[in-house]
């Protein structure tokens, strides 16, 4: 039973009758850059998130970079974030000339530990970038309180958590800015790259738009050094169709996750923790096992997708290794050795869940 990590083909087959006509219509309209679907998608995401503004861009990485630049992050500044995440959460800080300050994570949620964030704030700290890892919102309330106390920006890396919520607000809408990725494997995924920044702040929204368009408000008049970061019309068409299904697909992801949980109960495998502070949307279903490598080998051998997110913590990456050689993040470094993500999809069938669970349990207990 071959089971991919992300079954994009099954999702396309489900949606193709709705997708194909609107894609063909957009092709025929030939307005491929900045077209009506991009504008409509921005409005729909803003309404969905409950934000005043949503600004589309070329990728989740660009969303983070634009948000940081809009907040004025620059050389000499420090930005607190996690080392247990994809590189872009930190590399965008570095690209602004600032220094990422890595702090350790909560061992249950895998997200930033607010107490350790508080201890890391210094005179050069300008922002905190929590990552809602695997679809579980970080503890935003204490982080927002720290930002208010110290005059910092709160920038949510919500790349993995579209549709999650925290404290009655949608993921991305709690902080000063929220950043989304629409990479194809995401809960809300395009047929290529794409990203979005959401915010309630009129000034920050205007600055993000300027930066995303070569630093220009008026054509051929350039105020600041900006970027060429656009979501194209065809991706907006795809995302508008999928946005209509996001709540249902996230509900189904939660059902799959809970079915896995039931199979692993009492086994010694550590299943994802839902901390009650936010609604997990299970971009990834990630477990811990001392026999992680054996589980990975068993799944791969049986044709079942699996992945390790993330096998190397950012402070141990070659890019940052010397700069952070003395930094120890014991929880992060322990998780790197133990976590493995299993296939999860709103379309995963019960017999597939059982097959995957059987393989995992056999390898875990071998």
How would you sum up this structure in a few lines?
It contains twelve helices and 14 strands. It has 366 residues and is an alpha/beta fold.
Helix-strand blueprint:
Blueprint: H1 8-29, H2 36-49, E1 53-57, H3 60-70, E2 78-82, H4 88-95, E3 99-103, H5 114-120, E4 125-129, H6 140-150, E5 153-157, E6 165-166, E7 169-170, E8 177-181, E9 195-199, H7 202-212, E10 216-218, E11 221-222, H8 233-243, H9 246-264, E12 278-279, E13 285-288, H10 292-301, H11 330-338, E14 339-342, H12 350-365
Parallel strand pairs: 2-3, 2-4, 4-5, 5-8
Antiparallel strand pairs: 1-9, 6-7, 6-12, 8-9, 10-11, 13-14
Helix pairs in contact: 1-8, 2-8, 3-4, 3-7, 9-12, 10-12
Features:
single chain; 366 residues; alpha/beta; Aspartate Aminotransferase, domain 2; Aspartate Aminotransferase, domain 1; seven-stranded mixed β-sheet; three-stranded antiparallel β-sheet; 12 helices; 14 strands
Describe the model.
By secondary structure, this protein is α/β, with parallel strands linked by helices. The protein folds into 2 domains: 8-243, Type I PLP-dependent aspartate aminotransferase-like (Major domain) (Aspartate Aminotransferase, domain 2, 3-Layer(aba) Sandwich), CATH 3.40.640; 246-365, Aspartate Aminotransferase, domain 1 (Alpha-Beta Complex). 41% of the residues lie in helices and 15% in strands. The protein is built from 12 helices and 14 strands. The protein has helices at 8-29, 36-49, 60-70, 88-95, 114-120, 140-150, 202-212, 233-243, 246-264, 292-301, 330-338, 350-365; strands at 53-57, 78-82, 99-103, 125-129, 153-157, 165-166, 169-170, 177-181, 195-199, 216-218, 221-222, 278-279, 285-288, 339-342. A 7-stranded mixed sheet has the order 1-9-8-5-4-2-3, with helices on both faces. A 3-stranded antiparallel sheet has the order 7-6-12, with no helix packed on it. Helix 3 (60-70) packs across helix 7 (202-212). The chain is globular, with a radius of gyration of 20 Å. The two termini are 21 Å apart. The mean pLDDT is 97.
């Amino acid at each position: 039973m071959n089971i991919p990590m992300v079954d994009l083909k099954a999702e396309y087959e489900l949606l193709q009758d709705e997708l194909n006509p609107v894609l063909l219509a957009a092709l025929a309209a030939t307005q491929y850059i900045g077209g009506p679907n991009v504008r409509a998608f921005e409005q729909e995401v803003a309404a969905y998130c409950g934000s005043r503004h949503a600004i589309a861009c070329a990728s989740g990485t660009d969303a983070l970079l634009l948000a940081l630049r809009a907040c004025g992050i620059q050389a000499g500044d420090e930005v607190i974030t996690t080392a247990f995440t994809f590189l872009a959460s930190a590399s965008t800080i570095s690209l602004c000339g600032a220094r990422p300050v890595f702090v350790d994570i909560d061992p249950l949620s895998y997200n930033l530990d607010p107490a350790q964030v508080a201890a890391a704030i210094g005179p050069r700290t300008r922002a905190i970038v929590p990552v809602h890892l695997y679809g579980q919102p970080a503890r935003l309330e204490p982080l927002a309180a720290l930002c208010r106390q110290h005059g910092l920006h709160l920038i949510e890396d919500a790349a993995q958590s579209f549709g999650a919520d925290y404290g009655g607000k949608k993921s991305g809408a709690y902080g000063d800015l929220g950043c989304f990725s629409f990479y194809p494997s995401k809960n809300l995924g395009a047929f290529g790259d794409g990203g979005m920044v959401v915010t309630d702040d009129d000034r920050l929204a205007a600055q993000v738009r300027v930066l995303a368009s070569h630093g220009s408000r008026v054509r051929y008049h350039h105020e600041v050094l900006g970027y060429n970061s656009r979501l194209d019309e065809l991706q907006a068409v795809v995302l508008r169709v999928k946005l209509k299904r996001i709540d249902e697909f996230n509900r189904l992801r939660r059902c799959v996750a809970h079915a896995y949980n039931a199979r692993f109960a009492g086994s010694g495998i550590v299943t994802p923790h839902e901390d009650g502070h936010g609604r997990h949307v299970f971009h990834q279903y990630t477990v811990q096992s001392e026999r992680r490598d054996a589980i990975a080998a068993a799944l791969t051998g049986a044709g079942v997708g699996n992945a390790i997110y993330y096998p190397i913590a950012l402070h141990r990456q070659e890019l940052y290794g010397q700069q952070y050689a003395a930094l120890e993040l014991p929880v992060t470094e322990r998780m790197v050795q133990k976590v493995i993500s299993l296939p999860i999809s709103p379309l995963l069938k019960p017999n597939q869940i059982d097959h995957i669970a059987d393989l995992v349990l056999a390898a875990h207990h071998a």
